[in-house]
Amino acid sequence: MATAKKATAKAPAAAKKAPAANSGFMKPLTPSPQLAAIIGSKPMPRTEVTKKVWEYIKAHKLQDAANKRNINADAKLKEIFKKPQVSMFEMTKLISGHLS
């Protein structure tokens, strides 16, 4: 009988539907005009925005040579970052302010 209770206890847990994985990251967001100058104006998920910004950083060789965790801003990135250099951890926070 004890095994029957355990089996019933597990049944409702198995019946629960799992939430959509990373639904917040996959929601398309519209970039600000400053960010659109770098990644385009088409709405896209946060993950894609970050990927496109990194493509821009690497294409323009904006990673700091001494410390690869820092990004040196060019004119376009300076409009988003508001300072000449940011860490890659700071970057995602600053970019999120340019998404709606």
From TrEMBL:
DM2 domain mapped to chain residues: 24-100
Q: Where is the composition biased (Low complexity)?
A: 1-21
Q: Name one Pfam family in it.
A: SWIB
Coiled-coil regions, chain positions:
none
* Annotated region (Disordered), positions in chain: 1-26
**InterPro entries for the chain:** SWIB_domain (IPR019835), SWIB_MDM2_dom_sf (IPR036885), SWIB_MDM2_domain (IPR003121)
> Which superkingdom is the protein from?
Bacteria
Q: Any idea what this protein is called?
A: SWIB/MDM2 domain-containing protein
**Species in which this protein is naturally found:** Ottowia cancrivicina
